[in-house]
Automatic annotation (TrEMBL), chains A, B:
It holds the Pfam family M20_dimer. CDD domains: M20_bAS. Residues 205-304 form the Peptidase M20 dimerisation domain. NCBIfam families: hydantase, PRK09290.1-3, PRK09290.1-5. It comes from Robbsia betulipollinis. The keyword Cytoplasm does not apply. This is Zn-dependent hydrolase. One of its GO terms (molecular function) is hydrolase activity. Belongs to the peptidase M20 family. It comes from the Bacteria.
Length: 403, 403
């Protein structure tokens, strides 16, 4: 059994780096704070005798040697956060891995296979797009070069930011034997069903876009309503359409506009250009494809109606991903053997596990979070639930580590 | 007759200060560039033997003495611009005044009454709210203290910014005998009717607001559509409502959302808080009052429907303003005597003249601008039209300057 208090202490220690007054975490990918978080976690791993490797996109791999020279059993997640993020999203998965290693270290257990804990770079996708960047590169979802060239809103590239915090590595990391990821659910289902463990069977597919609406700046007073080409008004209508598209694809269809940039953004100027993000999600390819078509049709209609130019650029795409049946069964068994209540779950969020599942058998373990709220400074989780999830991870990893 | 080429040369020289690559002007109120513009124009006035005075809100008054110690005939406008503004909005009115003084100086004419050219502070209202700040303080529409305390988005106050550019004065300026303001129309009506001069009879009333929508940040993936309290989606619906309110009050009703701020503005976070501006305009108090009520009702409905808190704060208000019948007639006569085509006009924009009309007889002279486009870097006007408008100003001022 893992030490739930040690796990909690480490979660709270990591949460000090980029702590916000509202009790959350702001540790954007590849900032100085992210660097400090990486330093802290790798320090803990070193104290357990782990070797540390870093690859070219800055993913960190902390390895505890096994008896045999076989592919490792890997776990991990991310420690970057949203601009107004919480203390558990990502951090729980990484520190659960470290806790598993600490428990084995203390008990003097040596596994057949090596165990490896990964910190994936820029999972959140809020400073740099695409989301799940480090695991995406590792699994070949897109190229290293394209990821290194991505820039934030200030024009700083991933390559530059990695250099600045000293995490531009060059290690080549073999494909693991299998991969587990523990994570808070980030949704309300476990809580609603009063279950402690979500046995994750699949994750929703996602398509993200940058939509650019080009209108015509003009004076908010003398310009007659009929003569306007108002880029913000047109965008507002499209934001409502994105919501309608999601509702038309219930129960799993999701549609969100989280980011918007208005130009020139002056009170008495009719906006001339607006850029905004669209995030569409669905449980299967047919539905997600239909939502994509509906978005493009809505934009084409809006452009024609309002005499504006609208550009729709897809910036993230991955299909819904099923996890490995054998590993799923192993998570279920671990939960049962620990006497924990569980239910099957579908992940509404993307996770590094979604990309790793392309190269190795993968499964995820969810624990509840308060009111289903995540990507919010008030994100909260019960110590007992976190401890339970980590115990499930320990058993599932031990089972997989047998040669 | 004024010298149209000199007027044009000065317009182009002033437009060098804060020139943008797209051919426009970015000289926000009380920035260093605004200071440079003020220095340039006052230098020209000094060369004409004018005395220069500056009041506590930074309005500049450039006076050419008359034969008699009577209240002055005043003209003026502003030289601050929109973030993506043009070369003529405001600048034309100020430099027309300087051109009138230059013409009289050259001809050795001394008028009975003094003539005075004003540069009003922060007319545009895009760096600091309220709009028409300098003339508003001068005419008692709001207090000096409240204006000095207004801050920009970086938290810099008007008082600090005035100090920084050396235009925090202390002169007391008497009420003028009357006030004229020449300005580009900023709308399409004169061009559509092929007229050179707009004899402005009134200006639309305005109400501006800051609307704050408070929802709940949550994850764009796992959060079911029905559980969301999306501040941006709610704001998008309100932006469409603002447009509908204006259309329902045709032909003079105007409604614009020019500014929006989304929080935390991350692609995969359901927005938790949005602030946006609303700018409503109408030709009479009843209509404007009805639009205000419609906006507040729409916000109350939206708050109830979407389980969000919405705050509506009015930040600018002035009723529609009629100009002085005698001065209007004088502008008409001047146009006729110069053989210029003219038509009556209503100003859709606010102008410093709208506030000055509260304390002194006031009239305005419009000239066409290309395609009716203003508050845009491509704002453009014909040299002949500008010259014609300035000649009308000269005649109207000379007539008013007789004791
Ligand atoms: N788990 C998580 O918050 N991932 C971010 C990617 C997403 O938006 O699904
Ligand atoms: N003339 C002008 O552009 N004034 C700005 C104030 C307004 O928005 O009406």
């Amino acid at each position: 059994r893992i030490d739930g208090q040690r796990l909690w202490r480490r979660l709270m220690a990591l949460a000090q780096i980029g702590a916000t007054p509202a009790g959350g975490n702001r540790r954007l990918a590849l900032t100085e704070l992210d660097g400090q978080g990486r330093d802290l976690v790798t320090q803990w791993a070193r104290e357990l005798g782990c070797s540390i490797r870093v690859d070219a996109i800055g993913n960190i791999f902390m390895r505890r040697a096994g008896r045999l020279d076989l592919p490792a059993v890997m776990t991990g997640s991310h420690i970057d956060t949203q601009p107004t993020g919480g203390k558990f999203d990502g951090n729980f998965g990484v520190l659960s891995g470290i806790e598993v290693l600490s428990t084995l270290h203390q008990a003097g257990v040596v596994t057949d296979r090596p165990l490896e804990v990964a910190i994936w770079t820029n999972e959140e996708g809020s400073r740099f797009v695409p989301v799940m960047m480090g695991s995406g590169v590792y699994c070949g979802a897109f190229t290293l070069a394209s990821a290194l060239a991505a820039v934030d809103l200030d024009g700083i590239s991933v390559a530059t930011a990695l250099d600045a915090i000293g995490y531009a590595g060059s290690d080549h990391i073999e494909t693991p034997a299998c991969y587990f990821e523990a994570h808070i659910e980030q949704g309300p289902v476990l809580e609603a069903h009063d279950k402690v463990i979500g046995v994750v069977e699949a994750a929703l597919g996602q398509r993200w876009y940058t939509v650019t609406v080009k209108g015509m700046e003009a004076h908010a007073g003398p310009t007659p309503m009929a003569m306007r080409r108002d880029a913000l008004l047109c965008s507002a209508r499209l934001i409502a359409e994105v919501n309608a598209i999601a509702l038309a694809n219930a129960p799993n269809g999701r549609g969100t506009v989280g980011w918007i940039e208005n130009y020139p953004n002056s009170r008495n100027v009719i906006p001339g250009q607006v850029r905004f993000s669209v995030d569409l999600r669905a449980a299967d390819e047919t539905t997600l494809g239909g939502m994509d078509a509906a978005l493009r049709a809505a934009c084409a209609r809006a452009a024609a109606d309002a005499h504006l130019a609208i550009d729709v650029e897809q910036v993230v795409y991955f299909p819904a991903q099923a996890f490995d049946a054998t590993l799923i069964a192993s998570v279920r068994q671990a939960s049962d053997s620990l006497g924990l209540s569980w239910m099957p779950a579908v992940s509404g969020a993307g996770h590094d596990a979604v990309y790793v599942a392309r190269v190795a058998p993968t499964a995820m373990i969810f624990v509840p979070c308060k009111d289903g709220i995540s990507h919010n400074e008030i994100e909260s989780a019960e110590p007992e639930h976190l401890e339970a999830g980590c115990n499930v991870l320990l058993r599932a990893m031990l089972a997989a580590a047998r040669a």
